[in-house]
Protein backbone atom coordinates (compact mmCIF):
# COMPACT_ATOMS: atom_id res chain seq x y z
CA UNK A 1 0.00 0.00 0.00
CA UNK A 2 0.91 3.65 0.19
CA UNK A 3 2.55 3.42 3.59
CA UNK A 4 5.13 0.91 2.40
CA UNK A 5 5.98 3.15 -0.56
CA UNK A 6 6.27 6.19 1.68
CA UNK A 7 8.54 4.40 4.12
CA UNK A 8 10.86 3.43 1.28
CA UNK A 9 10.94 7.02 0.06
CA UNK A 10 9.29 6.18 -3.26
CA UNK A 11 6.39 8.08 -4.78
CA UNK A 12 3.13 6.83 -3.24
CA UNK A 13 1.61 4.04 -5.33
CA UNK A 14 4.38 4.31 -7.88
CA UNK A 15 3.66 7.96 -8.64
CA UNK A 16 0.37 7.17 -10.38
CA UNK A 17 -1.54 9.73 -8.35
CA UNK A 18 -4.31 7.20 -7.79
CA UNK A 19 -3.43 6.72 -4.13
CA UNK A 20 -2.83 9.84 -2.08
CA UNK A 21 -0.83 10.23 1.12
CA UNK A 22 -2.76 11.60 4.06
CA UNK A 23 -0.94 14.80 4.91
CA UNK A 24 -3.86 16.12 6.92
CA UNK A 25 -1.91 16.87 10.09
CA UNK A 26 -2.64 20.16 11.81
CA UNK A 27 0.20 22.46 12.82
CA UNK A 28 -0.68 21.97 16.50
CA UNK A 29 -0.57 18.17 16.13
CA UNK A 30 2.82 18.34 14.41
CA UNK A 31 4.26 20.60 17.11
CA UNK A 32 2.92 18.28 19.82
CA UNK A 33 4.48 15.22 18.12
CA UNK A 34 7.85 16.95 17.82
CA UNK A 35 7.70 17.91 21.50
CA UNK A 36 6.66 14.41 22.60
CA UNK A 37 9.20 12.60 20.38
CA UNK A 38 12.40 14.70 20.27
CA UNK A 39 15.46 13.43 18.41
CA UNK A 40 17.28 10.86 20.56
CA UNK A 41 14.32 9.75 22.69
CA UNK A 42 13.63 6.02 22.96
CA UNK A 43 10.45 4.43 21.65
CA UNK A 44 8.81 1.02 21.55
CA UNK A 45 6.76 -0.17 18.60
CA UNK A 46 3.10 -0.87 19.36
CA UNK A 47 1.84 -1.55 15.81
CA UNK A 48 3.24 -1.37 12.27
CA UNK A 49 1.81 -3.13 9.25
CA UNK A 50 4.56 -3.56 6.69
CA UNK A 51 4.41 -6.56 4.37
CA UNK A 52 8.10 -6.26 3.44
CA UNK A 53 9.75 -6.17 6.86
CA UNK A 54 9.07 -7.94 10.14
CA UNK A 55 8.38 -5.16 12.64
CA UNK A 56 7.09 -6.89 15.79
CA UNK A 57 5.39 -5.08 18.67
CA UNK A 58 7.88 -4.39 21.44
CA UNK A 59 10.72 -3.56 19.03
CA UNK A 60 12.72 -0.63 20.41
CA UNK A 61 14.48 2.23 18.70
CA UNK A 62 15.75 5.80 18.88
CA UNK A 63 13.92 8.71 17.25
CA UNK A 64 15.83 10.38 14.41
CA UNK A 65 13.19 13.08 13.90
CA UNK A 66 9.59 13.89 12.98
CA UNK A 67 8.93 14.99 9.40
CA UNK A 68 6.36 17.51 8.12
CA UNK A 69 3.74 14.78 7.59
CA UNK A 70 3.98 13.73 11.24
CA UNK A 71 5.86 10.49 10.57
CA UNK A 72 8.31 9.61 13.33
CA UNK A 73 11.60 8.43 11.84
CA UNK A 74 13.24 5.80 14.04
CA UNK A 75 16.51 3.86 14.00
CA UNK A 76 15.21 0.45 15.13
CA UNK A 77 17.24 -2.17 17.02
CA UNK A 78 16.76 -4.62 14.11
CA UNK A 79 18.65 -2.28 11.76
CA UNK A 80 15.53 -0.92 10.06
CA UNK A 81 14.89 2.79 9.72
CA UNK A 82 11.20 2.61 8.81
CA UNK A 83 9.10 5.57 9.90
CA UNK A 84 6.10 5.30 12.21
CA UNK A 85 3.40 6.70 9.90
CA UNK A 86 1.05 9.27 11.44
CA UNK A 87 -2.47 7.86 12.05
CA UNK A 88 -1.47 4.45 10.70
CA UNK A 89 1.30 2.95 12.82
CA UNK A 90 1.82 3.36 16.56
CA UNK A 91 4.74 3.65 18.97
CA UNK A 92 5.14 4.84 22.52
CA UNK A 93 7.90 6.68 24.32
CA UNK A 94 9.87 4.61 26.81
CA UNK A 95 12.19 5.62 29.61
CA UNK A 96 15.56 4.07 30.38
CA UNK A 97 17.81 2.03 28.13
CA UNK A 98 15.92 0.66 25.13
Task: Summarize the topology.
Layout: H1 2-7, H2 27-36, E1 42-47, E2 60-66, E3 72-76, E4 83-84, E5 90-94
Antiparallel strand pairs: 1-2, 1-5, 2-3, 3-4
Written description of the protein model:
The chain is an alpha+beta fold. 16% of the residues lie in helices and 26% in strands. It has helices at residues 2-7, 27-36; strands spanning 42-47, 60-66, 72-76, 83-84, 90-94. A five-stranded antiparallel beta sheet has the order 4-3-2-1-5. A hairpin with a 6-residue loop joins β3 and β4. The longest helix has 10 residues, at 27-36. Mean pLDDT is 82; it is low at 1-21.
| SSE run | HHEEEEE
Main sheet attributes: strand count, strand direction, barrel closure: 5 strands, antiparallel
C-alpha Rg (nearest Å): 13 Å
* Mean pLDDT across all amino acids: 82
- The first-to-last residue Cα distance is 30 Å
Q: What strand order characterises the main sheet?
A: 4-3-2-1-5
Number of helices: 2
Structural descriptors:
single chain; 98 residues; alpha+beta; 2 helices; 26% strand; globular; disordered N terminus
Quick structural summary:
This protein has two helices and five strands; from the N terminus they run H-H-E-E-E-E-E.
